[in-house]
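Running co-folding for FE3-S4 cluster.
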Amino acid sequence: MNEHVTLSPAEEPVTIPNTRKVFIKTYGCQMNVYDSTRMGDALASEGYVATEEMGEADLILLNTCHIREKAAEKVYSALGRLRDMKKARAAEGRELMIGVAGCVAQAEGEEIIRRAPSVDVVIGPQTYHRLPDALRKARGGKPVVDTEYAVEDKFDHLPATDRKLIRARGVTAFLTVQEGCDKFCTFCVVPYTRGSEVSRPISQIVDEAIRLVESGVREITLLGQNVNAWSAEGPTGNDWGLADLLYRLAEIPGLARLRYTTSHPRDMDDRLIEAHRDLRILMPYLHLPVQSGSDRILKAMNRRHTGAEYLALIDRIRNARPDIALSGDFIVGFPGETDQDFEDTLKIVEDVNYASAFSFKYSTRPGTPGADLTDQVVEEVKAERLERLQALLLKQQADFATSCVGKTIDLLLEKPGRMPGQVIGRSPWLQSVNVDAKTSQIGEIIRVRIIGTGPNSLFAEPAESLMGA
Ligand code: SAH
Ligand code: SF4
Ligand code: F3S
């Protein structure tokens, strides 16, 4: 298969293999992970195969994240290294194309080509169905920037994922149901990088879910920046919310587990809370970011709820599903955050008791209202607060893991473990669990008893083996 054809564009002839290989590096959130798989689909239909080896790729695609300054800067340092790689390749007469996709592409567009002229293609999160086209044009020699929001829906133009590829990707899958955000929290770039809120229609989602399940997927996580704001017109012209969609997906034969992320507290409606009570297929885990425990800061962040309202919501969710594990996101050092505001954040963490959480230092993002605020918190204070918050969150996470020891749970076997004879599964609460099992059992849900905790995972033994003991 290593036959080469020679193209002779502009200056030097460059040889390219007739089966091209693409290496996709994904930064950022789960939505980017999903988009990377769908860009892979678009490229597969052009004859590209995915490679895990950057060195052998003919196309290197960075799917980027703009959420914090560090995330965005990482892209430019990676592009610096790729420029050298491209030069070395050119010296050997081999092609290397470089593409930038994702939220930095959307936010910076042309600027990327100015700062990194070795980039061939810049493509946005809403335009990547046109990636093959852009690559073809860029092969003519001039870089292509395609970040104009398309009138058409990319999902109508992407090829359905190849069933073999789904199988190769494993027994859990992401499925984007909603994109964009209309909330405009004052710290956040997402409304600018992903555009306004759009929900995918029911039939598109159901078809994609069925295809995943028919190809071996047992657990689907529905994705959206505000996934619980998903809405669509139901079959009888009635309004459907995320709860209705979950009930519909629960009917798919062979689908064992459903999850969804990320939710906004404002959009947790009664139906969705009832779904957590009534729908066994819906896993008892909820990522519900609060960002801060201070009402003053919540207001400045434009989160549009108070700490007390968040706590009351958590109570209602826990009443509906007492074993639910909660996770959250936090920002420390938002402009104007005082010691007292930060103490309020620690207090809300104590009150909720999270099973897991992510916490970040506030990062000023150009173009967001937060960037215009004058009372920025100094770096040292941010660092100190983050350390204190993370110590508390880590303790809660460890306590939660310890509280699982002795429990008998359902485990979805996902992938081979590090040791032969071991398989890694996922608990209902999204923890990684190591257990003795055969790799041929991957995809099965087995009963196990949790017997211990490790730094980032749990240990279990098959529950049956205990019965005779
Ligand atoms: N839609 C989700 C959040 C998506 S961004 C929600 O509303 O909860 C993921 C997380 O990144 C956010 O929850 C927030 O904690 C963090 N984040 C976003 N912008 C940030 C910024 N400018 N600085 C630091 N952290 C930020
Ligand atoms: Fe960003 Fe707020 Fe929208 Fe979440 S809800 S994506 S934090 S603007
Ligand atoms: Fe990052 Fe874009 Fe996701 S900014 S967090 S990749 S929506």
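Result summary
The longest helix spans residues 379-404.
The radius of gyration is 24 Å.
Job closed.
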